[in-house]
Design the sequence.
């Protein structure tokens, strides 16, 4: 009697193909070698390793190189087989890998930064090495001469970098939650625009030059897609991680976005699915859905003879304060943010304490149900 075979649908979950072990500290960068079963890794344990897949199916190191300082960033250009390694002391070292991936020769050292290097990109067409660091700057250097061509400073640590090779535009994310678009020239640069939307520091960026889409992940556990090519300011907010989003990769062939976070989770987003654009934030003293006043809107509560919305106990989570407004009354500062009313928190500060830092204080809890990025500029 023949057995009946039931076909099972393929799982959409990622499948673990292999696991590489050997580093003694955190791995800062892992890059696939195109057209080879190999991986190049850099780690905080001050080592660079080139792993090749053997006949047994396991990866073994064919190159093991020890650096003088922990490795914080790395870039690899396959056509020229050049490796650029950023270190914790701010220096970037260039190496050349042999054709059989069994030897790596030192080329030169670039004094690019005064602090930890956070990201590196190499452009073969211009022979530029562009990098960002914790010294709050982005720098670009000539790989032919080793000279510094230009440098631009930010108000906070520059944490990540993406580069458009055709137009020489650089996207730099920083710890203040902003993304700065720069036009790099031979000896100068110009700021094109600044993208604001995240509530935490920018941890990673990914630029798709074909569709001209920019993806950003931040410590607020969210991902934002910026439609740069559309020139209409269109943005999409993706939420699903429970911790800091630390890496992004967009697959152009399947139109999927792969993201991973500090909680160990990996998410695959289908970007072909139609999604609603995040609405713009508006200022209002009453709910947009029911037009009832919020508890600070004394005038409307008096006119309508109703209590403030904070006293509503029937469906409190449906009412949202779609505004960010700051009020000063004598010696008390008030600050509000867009949150469900039952989760809205505030704290008042006497003017004597506020004069010390010149800013009002407010407790703004993270809202996991938020559907649009804020713009508090």
Sequence:
């Amino acid at each position: 009697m023949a057995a009946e075979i039931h076909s099972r649908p393929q799982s959409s979950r990622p499948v673990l193909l292999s696991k590489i072990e050997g580093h003694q500290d955190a791995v800062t960068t892992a890059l696939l070698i195109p057209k080879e079963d190999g991986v190049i890794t850099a780690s905080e344990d001050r080592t660079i390793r080139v792993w090749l897949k053997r006949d047994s199916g396991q990866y073994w190191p064919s190159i093991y190189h020890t650096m003088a300082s922990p490795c914080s960033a790395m870039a690899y250009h396959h056509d020229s087989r050049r490796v650029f390694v950023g270190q914790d002391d701010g220096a970037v070292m260039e190496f050349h890998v042999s054709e059989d991936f069994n030897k790596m020769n030192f080329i030169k050292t670039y004094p690019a930064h005064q602090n930890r290097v956070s990201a590196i990109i190499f452009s073969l067409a211009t022979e530029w090495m562009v990098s960002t660091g914790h010294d709050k700057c982005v720098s670009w250097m000539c790989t032919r001469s080793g000279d510094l061509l230009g440098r631009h400073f930010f108000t906070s640590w520059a944490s990540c970098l993406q580069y458009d090779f055709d137009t020489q535009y650089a996207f730099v994310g920083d710890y203040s939650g902003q993304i700065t678009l720069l036009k790099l020239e031979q000896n100068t640069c110009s700021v094109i625009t600044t993208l604001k939307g995240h509530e935490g520091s920018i941890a990673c960026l990914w630029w798709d030059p074909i569709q001209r889409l920019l993806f950003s992940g931040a410590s607020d556990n969210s991902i934002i897609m910026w439609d740069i090519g559309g020139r209409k300011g269109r943005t999409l907010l993706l939420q699903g991680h429970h911790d800091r989003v630390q890496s992004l990769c967009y697959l152009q062939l399947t139109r999927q976005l792969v993201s991973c976070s500090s909680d160990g989770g990996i998410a695959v987003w289908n970007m072909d699915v139609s999604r609603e654009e995040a609405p713009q934030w508006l200022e209002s003293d009453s709910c947009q859905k029911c037009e009832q006043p919020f508890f600070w809107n004394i005038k409307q509560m008096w006119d309508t003879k109703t209590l403030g919305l904070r006293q509503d106990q029937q469906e409190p989570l449906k009412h949202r304060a779609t505004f960010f407004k700051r009020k000063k009354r004598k010696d008390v500062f008030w600050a509000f943010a867009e949150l469900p009313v039952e989760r809205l928190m505030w704290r008042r500060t006497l003017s004597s304490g506020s004069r010390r830092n010149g800013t009002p204080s407010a407790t703004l809890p993270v809202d996991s149900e938020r559907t649009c990025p804020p713009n508090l500029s």
Observations:
- The two ends are 73 Å apart (CA to CA).
- The first strand starts at residue 27 and ends at 33.
